[in-house]
Amino acid sequence: MQKFLSLGISIAFALTLAACASSSPDVIQRGDAQRMSQVEDGVVLTVRNVVVDGSQSGIGAVVGGVTGAVAGATRGGSNAESNAIGLLVGVAGAAAGNAIERFSTREDAVEVLVQLKGGERRAVVQAKGEQVLVPGDAVILITTGGKVRIAKAPK
After folding, report:
1. Is 63 exposed, middle or buried (0-12, 13-18, 19+ CB in 10 A)?
2. Tell me, what DSSP letter sits at residue 147?
């Protein structure tokens, strides 16, 4: 029972981490609120679907490893046998935790190529947001603190 509770806590923790990692143009980071942003006008040339690979901070591996080691070490048998099982299950838990973190932090995104009014071109990758961009759309590139997002231009 304790093994399943530990596993449930680990999975919940990994999913919480995934929710914190978004590059959506509809989500503004707290540090970017009430900051002046640079805005440039442009026109969408192309839009293509991409996937932003998930992160591997190591937290998923640590949580999985510790959970696996504790669950494995609590199995019956001699002390040496419990330690060996704990080590093996801990390694497997670390690999599983790393995979869960990487998979749960992946994002469907778009790569948008924009022609600016001055003739320059910019490519930006951002998570899919509420606005659907298509070639020919008038857009604005909003740069805040080195991060860029694209939104449809106001009419």
Report:
1. buried
2. E
Condensed to tens digits (0 to 9), the pLDDT of residues 25-64 reads 667 667 667 678 899 999 999 999 998 776 666 666 566 6
Q: Which two tokens stand for residue 111?
A: 């790569």
Binned at pLDDT 50, 70 and 90, residue 118 comes out as: very high
Distance CA(21)–CA(41), nearest Å, equals 28
**Domain assignment of residue 128, given as a range:** 2-152
Among 33, 56, 55, which residue's Cα sits nearest to residue 107? 55
CA distance 137 to 155: 11
Handedness of CA 25, 31, 33, 35 (dihedral sign): negative
**Crossing angle of helices 79-104/59-73, nearest 10°?**
150
Helix (H) or strand (E) holding 33: none
Number of domains in the chain: 1
Mean pLDDT to the nearest integer, 127-153: 92
- Sequence-ordered strand ranges (E) for the chain: 38-52, 107-116, 121-127, 138-144, 147-152
